Amino acid sequence: MSAKQIVQDFYKSDALINATILDIYLHPEVILEWNSTKGFIKMDRKGLLDIATELSKAYIRSKVRISHILEEGNLVSVRYSHYIKTIENPREEMLLAHFIVIWEIKDDKLFRGYQMSQLS
Question: What pLDDT score was predicted for residue 6?
Answer without folding.
Answer: 98
